[in-house]
Structure formats: structure tokens, C-alpha cells
Write a structure and sequence with these properties.
Chain A is mainly alpha-helical and about 400 residues long. Chain A contains 15 helices and 2 strands. Helix content of chain A is about 70%, strand content about 0%. A two-stranded antiparallel ribbon of chain A has the order 1-2. In chain A, helix 2 packs antiparallel against helix 8. With about 270 residues, chain B is of the alpha+beta class. Chain B is elongated. Classes of the chains: A mainly alpha (about 400), B alpha+beta (about 270). At the A-B interface, helix 1 and helix 5 of A face helix 2, strand 3, helix 5, helix 6 and strand 7 of B.
Chain lengths: ~400, ~270
């Protein structure tokens, strides 16, 4: 018996109640958990960058480039889990050349490309162009050629040209904010628009996804900023950390309030699906109550809330921010898990449950997911080496 | 999907090798623009259903634009033999593993205490065993299930490439050579009628035995039913067997609140049926 069948037979033996016979298998596994997780990190990190650029939050200047580069690193692999999970991965391009316009999923490739090409690549390019020209003159050998290519042949670094870069970069960030909203709100819509599944079908799903994306993106940048500073043995800017902490606090509260609104609405209206969803929540106790709510939301909110009124010593706050960033990142992963896996555990007939067992190997295995999640960190490291924010001409205090 | 733009491109690509030197940038842009426009038109206007329709022109009366097929199911007549589910698997080469069904039978037992027990071991193919003591049973019945071939099918709506489509006769079909196997339609079907085939790695579902309809034969499940509990017919044919069945009985569809407009009409459908 092949491994997939043996997993299904095991799942079949663990079915509770009655499920439709085709529902034993979960068709969306851990790779589809990664998909909204990664796009969320992309959108969230970008929005944090735009706080500095558009909304002039000066305290966030030290993490502007880190936000952009981390957002870009994750965006480059955002389609990887999606394509890998397809039954026919080599047909993925059909989605772009013959999109079915009534499908919420069909537009993803265009939203993705818009974000990658128009927003992130252009913004990074305008932000770095002056430095790329300078580095292409300074460096020797292959690096010189790489920087030359990256300048795209535009070597004008006159004050006027740089001023235009600045203006265009600003304009792109302004366009980028609704685009980031679109990217992740849209991912929420993919789930929220499925009326067959009451766990997903919710009008506020795109908004919940958006705020959870901001939460995860801010936590990611907080984490990376601290790691990069540690590796470079640089002092952390406490003003910057406190500002990130403040924004994380507010977005966490908004995200939590929205999710609670959804929950309260479900409990109060107690529609047809209420009974099965109540049982589902008890089945997701580890990832929902403990992972997402307690460690991923309540603990960080409590600590960050305390910091808004009292400021303990720097080293305590630093340690707390670091732990909070990991807790929040894990909490949002749990949230994606609860949505994607949780939404498939119960039957669409509302009369029973199947189980999900993650495997270690295979395309849908934990190992491949870990590799996919590791790649953006490698890309980020390469980008930092190639485009070091601390060597930019306009940022000497890094 | 051949189109005039593609043909033009291929002709240009293969025929003009000797004249290439004389090609100007303007010529290149002309051809590129034609190709891009052709692909764009192709993407937007040519749907798999149309291609299918083109392919089927050579055959008899398929697609038949006058027909609007549906099923009628008489629950009172179903004895739970599972012949329909078995015939479906054989006719359509469906995997014999108990996780993949185009058609299956559910057994409902409503107990004295109003609790309900539903079973469908191996889709009912091997028959049913009574697991509830007879003195606890208030009511029991069998419910054959298959794709509802919804007129407003959510699966067709969500398919990102248009591989799932509603044929002109109202049959929801999947183009297997086109399906990318994303599973979005599986998630969107409220009736659990779809699965990813372990053989083709694309989505699979009831085709209403479209290949048999082409030959003027009824679907395999209908033919295999010994009691005539499954009725297949044309909903436009006012004198037909299906419309007659629907006139004579109070028929209902599953999950009408979802507004998917199913074309599987049940007689004697208990409100507990999911």
C-alpha cells in the first residue's frame, strides 16, 4: 500500500460521526497553511516600511530597508508552496494565460505580479539607485558588474535625479499601501468567499487576514532587526524598538477585537453550523486557545500594554521584544493553521470530523515546508550583503 | 487551443528564416502585438466548454442545446443495494479505494431519542449492516448521492483556470487535460462530491456518464438501479419521465439555502438529510 493510502486508511479509522466519503482526505495541507502565512508577512512588513516613508514615523527609520528587503525576500517564494501543492504543478501558468475571471483564486497571479514588479522591486530600486551607482564605481570584479546591471544603466546621481527618485519612491509607497491591503485582503477573500464552509465564510475574513498580516509582518521585522543587530554587534535603537512595539500592540488589539467580533457574532446568531464549530474549537485547543490566543495574543498584548505605561530597563525590554516577536510569529502561524486545517477537519454536512496527520517527508511534508520557510531567510541574508542598508549614503547612524 | 494568432506566429516562425535579415524592428513589434492580442483574446473569450463543444460537433446531437439534464431520486424506492455506486466505479474507472466516490449511498437511522446515525461504509458498495438495535429505530432510509450538477455551481465559479464548466446541457464537467489540481473546487462544493484523483492528480467527479449520454444511453447508476429509484432525464421535456416524476411527487433539493440551484431532485427527502 502506498504511504498516502495508508495515511488515509488511518484517517478513515479515526473518523468521528459521519463525513461525506470524499472528505476523509484533506486536500489542502501544510503548504496551504504557509501560503497565507508568507503573503501576510510580505504585506505586514511592507506596511511597516510605509509607516516610515509615507506617515513620517521617524523612529522607524532604522528598519525601513530591513522591512522592504524582508518583504521582498518572502514575496519571491510566496508562490512556491502554492505551486508545489498543485496536483499538476507544471500547469500553474494556465492560471495566468487563461484565467477564469469569476474565480477568486485566478487573480492571485496578477495581484502577486503587480506587487512584486510594480511595488516592491521599483520601490527598492528607487531607494537604492543612488547607492547602486556609487557601489558600481567603488567595487571591483563581479560585484561591480552586478551593481552595474542593477543600476539598469541609469547612472545619473545629480541632485535633481535623486530628488526625482525620492518623489517616485514616495509615490510607489503610496500606491503600495492599498496594494498590500489588496494582496492580503484578497487572500482572506479566497477563504471568506466559500459559502460551503462556515468556518471560512465570513465577510470580515479579508479584514481579519489583513490585520493578522500586519501583526505578523511587524513581528517579523522586529525579529529580523534584532537578529541583524546582534550579528553585526550593533546597538539596538530603543526608540525604534519601542515604536515597533507600540504599533504591534495596536494592531494586535485590532486583530484580536475583529476575531472576537467574528466569534461573538457566531455564538450569538448560533446558526446551523454552530454546533459543529463549537466542537471544532475544542479540537483545535492547542493551536487555537493555547497557540493563537494565549501565547500569540494575550501574553504579547499584556507585556506590550505594560510597556505603554511603564518602561523597564532597556535590556529587559529588549529581551521581552525578542520573545514577543517569536510568540507573535508562532501565534499567527497557528492562526493560519486553524483557518486552513481547521476548516477541513469537519464535514460540510456538519455531522462529523476527519483528522489530519502531517508527514515528515514528501511534497506536503514538514521537511519541505521548513525548507520553503528557510529560503526567504537565505534570500534576506544575500540581499543584506548585496544591498547593505548601513552602507547607504543617507543612513550613517545605522 | 489553436487560434489564428498562434497559427500566424508559427507560420512566421517557420517560413521566414531566409528573409530574417530584412526584418525590421517594426515587423517584430507587429508580430509580437498580434501574438499578444491573440493570446489575450484566446484567454478571455475561448472557454474550455466552447472547445469541448467544438470537438463534439462531429458526434451526434452533442452538445444538445435544447436539453437540460437532471436527476430525480425516489428515496421510497431505494433499497440500499449499492449497485449504483458500484456501477459508477466500474463504468468510470474510479479508484477502488474507499476515499473516492462519484456516487454513493447513505443510510440514515433516526432513533427514538431523535438522535441520528448516518453511515456509508465504502459508499454503500458492499451493502449495509444494521448497527442500531431494531427496537431503538424510529425511522430508517437510504439516500443515494452524486453531483447535483448545480445550475449556479460554486465549483465552476471558483475554478481558477475554467477547467470546470457547465456544459450546454447542464452537466458540470471537468477538463482533465486542463485542471491544475488546486482543490479549490473541492473546498467549494457543499455536497462533498469532488475529490482529487490519485490516478490523474486532477479533480474528478460525476459526469452524469456524459460519454453514455452521447450514445443515447442513461447514466450507469440509473441503469444499474434495480428498483428505478434513480431517474435521469431532460428538465425541459415537459412530457418526459423526470418532469412527470417531479410533478407527481413533492420533490426537494439539498441545501437550497445556498442558492446553488441543484438539479438532483429528491422525493421523500427527510429534513435531517445533509
Amino acid at each position: 500500500m502506498d504511504p498516502h493510502s495508508s495515511i488515509l486508511y488511518e484517517a478513515l479509522s479515526k473518523v468521528e460521526g459521519y463525513i461525506y466519503p470524499n472528505e476523509v482526505s484533506l486536500y489542502w495541507g501544510i503548504l496551504i497553511v504557509l501560503y497565507p502565512y508568507i503573503t501576510g508577512l510580505v504585506a505586514g512588513a511592507f506596511i511597516l516600511a510605509s509607516l516610515n516613508r509615507v506617515f513620517k514615523v521617524k523612529a522607524l527609520r532604522p528598519i525601513y530597508e530591513i522591512s522592504l528587503l524582508s518583504s521582498f525576500s518572502f514575496l519571491t517564494i510566496a508562490t512556491m508552496p502554492l505551486i508545489a501543492h498543485l496536483g499538476q504543478p507544471f500547469r500553474f501558468y494556465e492560471m495566468m494565460i487563461t484565467p477564469h475571471l469569476s474565480s477568486a483564486m485566478a487573480i492571485f497571479a496578477f495581484v502577486y505580479l503587480w506587487y512584486l514588479m510594480v511595488v516592491l522591486l521599483l520601490e527598492i530600486w528607487f531607494d537604492y539607485r543612488k547607492d547602486l551607482v556609487a557601489w558600481s564605481n567603488e567595487k571591483k570584479g563581479v560585484l561591480r558588474i552586478v551593481y552595474k546591471v542593477l543600476t539598469l544603466g541609469v547612472s545619473d546621481t545629480s541632485q535633481k535625479a535623486v530628488a526625482i527618485d525620492e518623489k517616485l519612491g514616495y509615490a510607489i509607497t503610496v500606491i503600495g499601501i492599498p496594494s498590500a491591503f489588496l494582496l492580503h485582503g484578497y487572500v482572506g477573500f479566497i477563504f471568506g468567499s466559500l459559502k460551503a464552509n462556515p468556518w471560512w465564510s465570513s465577510v470580515i475574513m479579508p479584514v481579519v487576514f489583513l490585520f493578522s498580516a500586519m501583526v505578523s509582518g511587524i513581528a517579523l521585522v522586529l525579529f529580523l532587526y534584532m537578529i541583524v543587530a546582534y550579528l553585526r554587534k550593533q546597538k539596538l535603537d530603543m526608540d525604534c524598538l519601542d515604536s515597533i512595539g507600540k504599533f504591534l500592540f495596536y494592531t494586535l488589539i485590532l486583530d484580536f477585537v475583529l476575531e472576537m467580533l467574528d466569534t461573538v457574532h457566531r455564538v450569538y446568531t448560533a446558526e446551523e453550523s454552530f454546533d459543529i464549530l463549537s466542537v471544532l474549537m475544542t479540537k483545535l485547543v492547542v493551536t487555537l486557545s493555547i497557540g493563537q490566543v494565549f501565547f500569540g495574543t494575550l501574553i504579547p498584548v499584556a507585556i506590550l500594554g505594560y510597556f505603554q505605561f511603564r518602561k523597564p530597563e532597556d535590556h529587559i525590554r529588549r529581551a521581552a521584544y525578542f520573545i514577543i516577536s517569536i510568540l507573535v510569529l508562532a501565534g499567527i502561524f497557528c492562526m493560519r493553521w486553524n483557518v486552513v486545517i481547521g476548516g477541513q477537519l469537519f464535514s460540510k454536512g456538519f455531522m462529523g470530523f476527519t483528522t489530519y496527520k502531517a508527514t515528515l517527508f514528501g511534497t506536503e511534508g514538514l521537511l519541505s515546508s521548513l525548507i520553503i520557510m528557510g529560503i526567504p531567510f537565505v534570500i534576506f541574508a544575500i540581499l543584506l550583503w548585496l544591498l547593505p542598508p548601513w552602507k547607504k549614503q543617507d543612513l550613517v547612524h545605522y | 487551443m489553436p487560434s489564428s494568432a498562434c497559427t500566424q506566429f508559427l507560420t512566421w516562425f517557420t517560413m521566414n528564416t531566409e528573409k530574417d535579415k530584412n526584418k525590421t524592428r517594426r515587423d517584430f513589434f507587429k508580430v509580437s502585438a498580434t501574438v499578444v492580442t491573440g493570446i489575450a483574446i484566446n484567454s478571455v473569450f475561448v472557454k474550455p466548454s466552447m472547445v469541448q463543444a467544438e470537438n463534439e460537433k462531429e458526434n451526434i446531437k452533442i452538445p444538445d442545446f435544447d436539453k437540460w439534464y437532471g436527476f430525480g431520486i425516489d428515496i421510497d424506492k431505494c433499497i440500499g443495494c449499492g449497485n449504483c455506486a458500484k456501477a459508477c466505479k466500474i463504468e468510470n474507472d474510479v479508484s477502488q479505494e474507499p476515499f473516492y466516490f462519484r456516487s454513493w449511498v447513505e443510510y440514515y437511522v433516526i432513533k427514538d431519542d431523535e438522535t441520528i446515525k448516518i453511515e456509508s461504509p465504502n459508499g454503500g458498495i458492499d451493502g449495509f449492516k444494521q448497527s442500531v438495535p431494531p427496537d431503538e429505530i424510529e425511522k430508517s432510509f437510504f439516500v443515494p448521492k452524486t453531483c447535483n450538477h448545480c445550475a449556479k455551481s460554486p465549483c465552476e465559479q471558483v475554478c481558477p483556470v475554467g477547467a470546470t464548466f457547465l456544459s450546454p446541457e447542464g452537466v458540470v464537467l471537468v477538463d482533465k487535460k486542463y485542471c491544475i489540481g488546486c482543490g479549490y473546487c473541492v473546498q467549494s462544493c457543499p455536497y462533498g462530491c469532488r475529490y482529487i484523483s490519485p490516478i490523474t492528480h486532477t479533480v474528478d467527479k460525476c459526469t452524469m456518464c456524459y460519454h453514455r449520454l452521447k450514445k443515447g444511453l442513461p447514466p450507469a447508476c440509473v441503469e444499474a438501479c434495480p428498483t428505478g429509484a434513480r431517474i435521469h432525464g431532460d428538465l425541459h421535456d415537459k412530457e418526459g419521465e423526470l418532469v412527470k416524476f417531479m410533478k407527481e411527487h413533492n420533490c426537494r433539493v439539498l441545501k437550497p439555502h445556498l442558492n446553488t440551484k441543484p438539479k438532483l431532485h429528491y422525493n421523500s427527502l427527510n429534513e435531517k438529510v445533509i
